Amino acid sequence: MMNVYPAASRHSFDLGWLRGSHSFSFGNYFEEENTSFGPMRVLNDDTISPKRGFGAHPHSDMEILSIVLQGDLRHEDSLGNVMITNFGGVQRMSAGTGVVHTEHNPSETDDVTLLQLWFEPEQRGLTPSYETTSFDSDALSGRLLPIASSNAVEHSVAKLHQDMTVYLSKLKAGSGIAFNQQPGRRVFLFVIEGSLNVTDESDAVTLLNRRDSARIENETFLQLEGDRDTEETFFMLIDLP
C-alpha cells in the first residue's frame, strides 16, 4: 500500500527569515491524522536567511537528523559541540535525557536549506550525544547510499538509536535501482529534486515529483526509476519499522 503526499499538501509558511514546509504535524500546525509514520515524527524542509536561526531550545528522547542541501548550518549545544555543516554533511543528535542547542545560518549573504527529521528512539532516557558525518556526493549516483543507520559501521554513516536506515540517491533519466524490503516494515520516500517513478510488486507505477513523498507499507519490492523527462532525480528513502 502506497499513500502519496503531494508537495502542495504540506503545511507551508513564510516568516521572512524562515521559509519552509512540514510533512507532519509540527509546532502550531496540527493535523490529528498526520502525526507520525512508524517512529518517524518530523520532516521539515526549511530555508533560513543569512545571519538568522533558531535560538537555544531543548529536546529530549528524540533522534534528530539534519541534512544540509545548500549553504551552511551552524550547530552549538549544551554538550560543548560546535559545528558548521554544508552539502555532503549530516548532523545527528540523540537528545536522550535532555540537551539544549541552537541552529544558525552563519553566512552573511546566502540562505541555508536543510531537511530535518525526527524519530523516536528505541529506548527512552539515553545519554545525549551528537555527531557529524559526511558522504561523497559522487557516491549517490545510481545507488542507495546509507547516510544514517542503526547498523552504522562506516565513519560516513551516522549512528541512529532506532532500527532504521536513511538512504540518499541520484538517478539519471531512465536509470533505475531496486529496493527489497523485509515483510512488516515501512518505506518513506521523499523526492528532493526531479521526478521519480515507483513501481510496486503489483507492477503499479506511481510518479512522485519534486518534494512529493510516499508512505509505503506491506510492499516487499520497489523499482525506483528516474523519470525520462528529468535529467537527474535526487531522492531520500527511509527503511523503518
Automatic annotation (TrEMBL):
Residues 147-240 form the Quercetin 2,3-dioxygenase C-terminal cupin domain. Keywords: Iron, Metal-binding. GO terms for molecular function: metal ion binding. Binds 1 Fe cation per subunit. Fe cation binds at residues 57, 59, 101, 103. Its cofactor is Fe cation. Residues 15-118 form the Pirin N-terminal domain. Pfam families: Pirin, Pirin_C_2. It comes from the Bacteria. Gene3D superfamilies: Jelly Rolls. PANTHER family: QUERCETIN 2,3-DIOXYGENASE. Belongs to the pirin family. This is Pirin family protein. It comes from Paenibacillus sacheonensis. The lineage of its organism: Bacteria, Bacillati, Bacillota, Bacilli, Bacillales.
